[in-house]
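Batch manifest, entry 17 of 40.
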Amino acid sequence: MIKDIKGLHHITSMASNARRNNTFFTDTLGLRRVKKTVNFDDPNVYHLYYGDEAGTPGTVMTYFPFADVMRGRPGIGEVSETQFAVPKGSLSFWHERLTAQGVSNLQIGTAFGADRLHFSGPDGERFALIEADGDARKAWTGAGIADGVAIQGFSGAKFRLHDTAATAELLEFMGYQRAETEGDVTRFVIPGGNGADVIDLEALPKTPFARQGAGSVHHIAFAVENRAKQLDVRKALMDTGYQVTPVIDRDYFWAIYFRTPGGVLFEIATNEPGFDRDEDTAHLGEILKLPARFEPYRAQIEAGLTPLAA
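Output type: C-alpha cells
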C-alpha cells in the first residue's frame, strides 16, 4: 500500500471564457489567483490557478479556458463535484452572497454529518461548500470575504461511476480508508491528511457516460511531498499494473498521470517547488509566466490571450 499520498494537490477543469472564470473564482468565491500561465501543451490557452495565499497543495483549483468550447455533459466516469471546506456556521453567508451574485442551482443539504451548499459554476460545473469543524488551514480573504467565512481549501471530491469496486480498491491502495456509506455514496478518507483528504464514490450503474467539455474536470491531482516519494508511488502503481506516464516538469510541480478503472484521469503531483519559484509570494498571479521554451514567443502568445480584466 502507498503511504506517501496525503490528499489532493489540485483539481483541473475546463472553461469556455477566461475572464468570466477569473471573475468567478477571485470575486465571487474570493480565492487568490496564484498563477497566470498557459497550457504547456497549447500555449494559446491560459492555465489559471486559484487557491490560498501561497497556492498550498490541497487548495488549488485550476482551469484551461478554451474559448467557446462546447459545454460538457455530466455523467459517469468523471469527477462530478468539487468540494471546498468552509468554517462552521458560514453557509448562510455563502447562500446570501451567491444568491446576490446570480449563482445558479443553489441547494442546501446535509451528508455524512456535515451541512453543505451545492451550486453551479459559470460552465455548469458542480461545487459544494462543506462546513468543517476544526480545519486549521488559513484561508485567503479576498474580495471582502472575512476570515471566519472564507474558503479554506478543498475538502475533497465526488466521483460518479458505474461500478465503484475497482476505484475503491485503487483508493485503498493509495492510502485511503473506507469510512462510511450513505445511499449510493461511499466515503474514503486519509487519516491525518492535508485537509483535502476525502473522496466520495457514487455508484450510478444506469447513468450514461460523461462527455468532456466546458465545466468538466480534466484531471484530479494527489499530493506527495517530493520527487523521491513520487518515484516510489510511480513504481508501486506500475508494479500493480497501471500505465503511468514518465515524470513531467510542470514548473511549479512535477507530475505523473494514469487513467483509473472508472475512467477518471489521476495525477500525482509534488508539493515542490511551489508557485513562488518564479514570483514573490506577495505578487503571485499578477503577470503572465511562461515556461522557458515559450519565452521567445511571448509577444505572440500575449497578443492571442484575452485580458482577464476589462
